[in-house]
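User: Look at the shape:
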Amino acid sequence: MLRIAYTEPTLKGIVIFKQQISSGKRSLCRLIRLSAIVLVLFPGLMPSLRAQETNERKPVYRVAPKYPEDLKRHDIGGVVRLSIEITPRGNVRTVSPIGGNPILVEAAIEAVKQWKYGPTEASQTLEVKIDFIQPSRSIH
């Protein structure tokens, strides 16, 4: 059998409980104020939010990369990651490889240089991922 004991709250217990809540609120307020000051002084510390904002920009014209014949013939594929800078008018200004097979990187860069984005007020830098995946050949 489970027994639950109930005791009347004492004045001392209520005062201690209120002090703990009050102390917690003060700490939370200090933390929020400090966070706001840091974000105002150092806005670059929030890269994840900035990345979400920049990823909203979608290409309005896209050229598909040409799959290199040698790699296609030998069933070699992969993923290429590029960093691209887009002008306010929507043109791709710079393309820098982040990772991937060097031959596939070349093909991806040539295609991405031709992409067009919608206009905005400022230049933006995006990370683009291009998959070079060849459909599996069926074996008979």
Remarks:
- Helices lie at 11-41, 47-54, 69-73, 102-112.
